[in-house]
Fold:
Amino acid sequence: MDATGQAQAVASGQVSARELVDHTIERIERLNPELNAIIWSDPEAARAAADGQLPDGPFTGVPFLIKDIGATQAGLPSWLGNQALKAAGIRRDTDTELGARMRRAGLITVGKTNLPEVGSVPTTQPLSCGPTANPWDRTRSPAGSSGGSAAAVASGMVAMAHANDGGGSTRLPAAWCGLVGLKTTRGLVPNPENTSRLVSELVVTKTIRDTARFLDAVAGPVDTDLYHATVPATPFADQLDGTESPKRIAMITDGGPWPVDPACVEAVEATARLLEELGHHVEPVGSEVLLGPESLVNGRLWQSGIAHRVDALGEVLGRPLTEDEVEPYNWAAAQRGLTMPAPEYLAAVDAQQLWSKSVIEWASGWDLLLTPTAGTPPMRTEDLWPPEGTPWKIGPTYGTIGAFTLPFNVTGQPAISLPLHRSADDLPVGIQLVAAMGQDGLLLSLAADLERAAPWIDHYPID
Structure:
């Protein structure tokens, strides 16, 4: 069952919230020792919540997991993948706005999921908590940074889990674990503690209806949000009956400076054929605007962002972190980020905004864009460790993985990864659809069409 099905079963009396929670705890205890998707859980608190008076929401009684960064709830650990914060036992004192909305939706939090330190890289193997395994192949990564959440959903520990996306961190794990991952229009989901233009909070799920219903439950900015987007009058869950007219779709398979695995190209081309069968027009286009030289400014600012995140860890602890308390890749990136003078940083921000404007204007020539989600199928975890002594040399590998996702964090456009393809060795390969600002409903509607045409709900790894 997806989360919607579980909620319906609870509402009808077919199953109790306590039975769902007990089933979830059993699966976690059986599967997590091998997958390491969940880094903290409180079974008794979850059972007590299930036995108590739950809010009347769209997911009342459904077990849920929260990623250990971004949105959270009072009393939960807040380690952010860092060994020093874990050793200090840092916990959150209050709900974030999104965490409170999760409670009001009726979800029962069972635990927190693994992520790379400060969510900075596209693989989940932090030194603080150890690597998470991909349920489809335990030797491979579930990607990152929402890798723990994706592994938990793909393995059936829960039907839906919290994720967030600052460079592909929802979409990439969805692609590598065979799930649905939506990055919404910037400002659609509340995040008043965040000042980055990049980050979007939501979930990874098994079905489009779960994604749409969760978005309906949490959408709408608060006054203190830096970015605000308008919530449509028609609920997202009511926009899944099909697109009203044929759409013009640009297909991009050229990674520019980044190599693209043939399996990822094949996935996009197969999706293009399916879209044409559904009556849409798909046109191959180049990636010059999206991935050309001007896009390199995003990478320069990324390192400054890591420096800021490392400093923020120190603010939580009340002292600066030392080199041995930060992972080598993040420490190296932060040191490089610190070398950018303020005037150069602001000039780069200006250049990034001009690049973003050019991408949005270019993309407006079509209704949607179609790309690979990741530049490669799931990679082996051992191949994603930064080289000892020269951790920055893993950068091109990370760039290959996330080349098609980061641009839309910068532009703010909604983008979704769908599990429409398998590699020759039966590993998930995701495709990405991108819409114009505010067109999340169109994106979900077309995704629902594809889900009906090529169902994936019965594709899951065997325990």
Observations:
- The CA atoms of residues 420 and 430 lie 6 Å apart.
- The longest helix spans residues 296-317.
